[in-house]
Specification:
The structure is a single chain. The chain is an all-alpha fold. The chain contains eleven helices and two strands, in the order ααααββααααααα. The chain has a two-stranded antiparallel ribbon. Strand 1 and strand 2 form a beta hairpin. Helix 2 crosses helix 3, helix 2 runs parallel beside helix 11 and helix 6 runs parallel beside helix 8. It starts with 25 loop residues before the first helix and ends with a helix. The N terminus is likely disordered.
Length: 303
């Protein structure tokens, strides 16, 4: 049986490639030990064995896919925040200079068209009246501010220091995600335990916190060992394969949205060093600011 998750269309470029070898499954180990009391010879494989192997392969493929998407999501989110932190003030300065240049030109010429353009430029700079009062300083169009989230969750505000976490942090995250993924749980209680643990892992990885990821790895290693899976009936295995395929399609939608976004487009310009890309953009913006400041000074200095 073919792998419905690994072969499904729409896998983004960052999620393609081989999956990690997982070794023989329970069904494979079990198959070679079944003998008849008459001749001691190995029996043919059980009918469910191929289906069980397909389910295990689909589970691992889905986990690898989710890891790839989550890794990319963290990069996009961190790049977006750093883009705003580092370049936002420069963009704001350019808008202010454009407004001042338009106002100076309008004051000099008195032309109605220049006056209209100056009013439009100034309107781009002015904040929308009443927004801060309406949202009480808690959120903007992108959602809750990090400070507000920290207050609600009793967590300190820790903005990312760079776009891409270190290689060691990435290694720790991937290892923990593979071991503790909720999709490996059969019981609801174990699934919830894994979901809670993995949410902590995701938060630590988003901050690039190697120390916390190391502590979480030790915590998982010392935790309860989930019970070994028992062979499932064929109908349950078919249902499992269908669920895995549906889950993969949902994640594919998220992946496509990430890749189609403007931030991902910027990341594609410098896939190996996105932090450097921010510095290059900042340098160009500073040059634009210097040109505008010179233009404004020339307008104000004219008789």
């Amino acid at each position: 049986m073919s792998d419905p998750v690994a072969q499904a269309p729409g896998v983004p470029r960052f999620a393609r490639g081989g999956t990690t070898a997982t070794g023989p499954g329970r069904a494979q180990r079990y198959a070679g030990r079944v003998t008849t009391p008459e001749d001691g010879q190995a029996q043919p494989p059980r009918p469910e064995e191929r289906l069980e192997r397909a389910v295990r392969a689909a589970e691992q493929a889905l986990i690898e896919y989710e890891i790839a998407v989550e890794t990319f999501r963290v990069e996009v989110e961190n790049f977006s925040r750093l883009h705003e932190q580092r370049l936002g003030p420069l963009y704001a300065r350019i808008e202010e200079l454009d407004a001042e240049i338009a106002e100076a030109r309008a004051a000099r010429t008195g032309d109605p068209e220049d006056i209209r353009r100056a009013a439009e430029a100034r309107a781009q700079v002015l904040p929308i009246p009443g927004v801060e009062e309406l949202l009480h300083g808690w959120m903007d169009g992108d959602g809750l501010f990090p400070e507000a989230t920290a207050m609600l969750t009793d967590q300190p505000v820790r903005p990312p220091q760079r776009v891409r976490p270190s290689e060691e942090a990435r290694k720790l995250y991937r290892d923990l995600a593979r071991k503790a993924h909720p999709d490996l749980a059969q019981e609801e209680a174990e699934r919830k335990r894994r979901e809670e643990f993995l949410s902590r892992v995701n938060a630590a990885y988003a901050r690039g916190d190697e120390t916390l990821l190391t502590e979480l790895a030790a915590e998982w290693a010392a935790g309860p060992v989930p019970p070994e899976r028992l062979p499932s009936p064929a109908e349950e295995l078919y249902a499992r394969l269908e669920w895995l395929a549906q889950r993969k399609e949902l994640i594919t939608v998220i992946a496509r949205e990430l890749e189609d976004g403007a931030i991902a487009g910027l990341l594609r310009l410098a896939p190996d060093d996105p932090d450097r890309l921010l510095e290059e953009i900042a340098d160009r913006l500073r040059a634009d600011i210097a040109q505008r400041e010179a233009s404004l000074a020339a307008l104000l200095g004219q008789d």
